[in-house]
Amino acid sequence: MSDSNEKPRNDLYEERVSQAKVVRKIVFFCVIGFILIGTILLTSGYFYIKNALGPMNEENPQEVEVTIPIGSSASQIGTILEEEGLVRNGALFRYFVRYNNESGFQAGDYVLSTAMTMDEMIAALKDGRVIQEAELVFTVPEGLWLEDIAGIIAENTEHSVEEVMEVLNDREYIESLIHRYAMLTDEVLQEGIRYPLEGYLFPARYDFLEDNPPIKEIIETMLDRTEAEVDPFLAEVEDGEYTLHNILTLASIIEREAQHSEDRYLISGVLYNRLEQGMRLQVDPTVSYALGEHRYMTTYNDLEVDSPYNTYLYPGIPIGPIASPGSDSIRAAFQPEETDYVYFYARYNGEVIYNETYEGHNQTHQMYRDEWIEAESEE
Predict the structure, then answer these.
(1) Domain 63-124 in CATH: superfamily?
(2) Is residue 116 predicted with pLDDT exceeding 90?
(3) Would you say residue 12 has pLDDT above 70?
(4) End-to-end C-alpha distance for the chain, whole angstroms
(5) Region 107-123: what's the mean pLDDT?
(6) H or E stretch covering 350
(7) For this UniProt entry, which segments traverse the membrane (predicted)?
(8) What are the pLDDT digits (tens) for 345-360?
(9) CB under 8 Å to 238, separation ≥6 — which residues?
(10) Which of 49-53, 284-288, 307-311 has the lowest mean pLDDT?
(11) I need a surface site. Which of 254, 256, 286, 296 has the fewest CB within 10 A?
């Protein structure tokens, strides 16, 4: 009996050993295959980028006249160069510019060559020998509501506020922008959003060659500036807890609450602390936006307004931005200062006072609330 039992056991052992050898061979060849594929992809990528950064035609160079309009972004310049046959990939030009932190491109007329590398092209584009005169110049300050920005556009062009707002609320147009801009998603079309592009029109000075450019050209120029601001942070968004829409919403709150750069980063830290601890943000500018009225102070009745923008009534980050944040506020929203504070109070004079406890915060509030009452009465 022992001999008959031993033989099946030996057969089973040998079968398992054989299977293990087969598995090891499969794993070995899979690893080798992955290594080969990875090597091929890396090598191909290297030569593709090297080729893309090099001259388009060094052996039989041709000179090409190029016009760079005033206010052109790196993305727009890349598109122009690609269309003129001076670079292989306009998007790669933009990423190359971002990676090397290049800036200072000048509007003007250039004669560029297909024998130039991308580095040489960038150097030439900083010369700006023939600067074009701007026919329209206007500035959008930080922290404005979209309605106010529409007013500035109307004041400086022949377009009416109603015409500007009609374009800004055109769902079909917004959907087309979502397909064109990586920073825009369907979040801007959520039910309850007041204006889809609120917070996405970058506050800055704008120069246009025409005295009355089309409304869409103005909007897209402003969107280009916002995209250039957020582009360096997109990788962080992909790995983070919050969407870009969420972060721009926080940036808009920071913009409305802080007057000084150092406060923006600290207020950002406070907002993130409140979110992490499950506390409501409870910031007054969101209530003003929910009401649709600019206010110095919010009353207890105001805090009850039923709106997804009201951070006293609803937890978490509001449904969307409440203003257009500037560069500093956007960076602060991405790079909050580490702090133990969970409360802050903005005084009328711009000073911000921080506290770790509600008791301390309430004392601060009682001490300085009359400043806002007096300011409101003088309006």
Answers:
(1) Endolytic murein transglycosylase (3.30.1490.480)
(2) no
(3) no
(4) 106
(5) 83
(6) none
(7) 26-49
(8) 888 788 888 888 988 8
(9) none
(10) 49-53
(11) 296
What single letter denotes the amino acid at residue 5? N
DSSP β-ladder status, 352-355 and 343-346: antiparallel
Cβ atoms of 70 and 132 within 8 Å: the answer is yes
Identify the helix (H) or strand (E) that includes residue 292: none
Question: pLDDT-derived band of residue 1, with 50, 70 and 90 as boundaries?
Answer: very low
365's enclosing H/E stretch is helix 358-378
Higher-pLDDT residue of 220, 101: 220
* Sign of the four-CA dihedral 351, 356, 358, 363: negative
Q: Whose structure tokens read 């030009």?
A: 93
Q: Which amino acid is at 342?
A: V
237, two tokens = 């968004």
Longest dimension (CA), the chain: 108
Q: DSSP letters along 264-281, please? A: HHHHHHHHHHHHHTT---
**Average pLDDT of 40-57?**
65
d(CA 258, CA 237): 24
User: Which residues are bridge partners to 208 per DSSP?
Assistant: 136
Owner of token pair 């020998």: 129
254 with 329: CB under 8 angstroms?
yes
Q: For residues 158 and 141, what is the distance between their CA atoms, to the nearest angstrom?
A: 21
Question: What 3-state class would DSSP assign to 68?
Answer: strand
Please give the single-letter amino acid code of residue 175: E
- Burial class from Cβ neighbours inside 10 Å (0-12, 13-18, 19+) for residue 239 reads exposed
Question: Which residues are within 8 A (CB) of 121 and not within 5 positions of it... i.e. 6 or more apart?
Answer: 81, 86, 87, 112
Both tokens assigned to 31: 């690893």
Rounded mean pLDDT of 252-265? 91
- Which residue's entry shows tokens 């009682």? 366
Strand partners for 207: 137
Residue identified by tokens 């200072």 is 104
